[in-house]
């Protein structure tokens, strides 16, 4: 799931994770491995959001899915694994201008 800038801000606020910018040197490899997503890293590893079904509300949401865990204590090497849903849901509030 590729997020808008407002959705990225809301996700960072709700998760406390950092977003990987599109200019990050790892982005081409991540996109080829996992598809086009907005990628986040936290103290546990690499995450993305997958859309969740709408429950009749006009708010969108996404479930956090773990794609890789840190392979070292310095948080410099990621070890990919099968996508694992975390059960954490990020709800996007509409931003009014």
UniProtKB/TrEMBL annotation:
<protein>
    <submittedName>
        <fullName>Uncharacterized protein</fullName>
    </submittedName>
</protein>
């Amino acid at each position: 799931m590729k997020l808008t800038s407002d959705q990225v801000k809301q996700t960072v606020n709700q998760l406390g994770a950092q977003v990987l910018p599109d200019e990050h040197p790892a982005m081409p490899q991540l996109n080829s491995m996992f598809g086009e997503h907005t990628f986040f890293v936290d103290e546990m590893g690499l995450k993305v959001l997958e859309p969740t079904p709408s429950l009749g509300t006009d708010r969108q949401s996404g479930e956090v899915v773990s794609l890789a865990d840190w392979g070292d204590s310095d948080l410099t090497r990621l070890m990919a694994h099968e996508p694992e849903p975390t059960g954490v849901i990020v709800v996007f509030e509409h931003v009014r201008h």
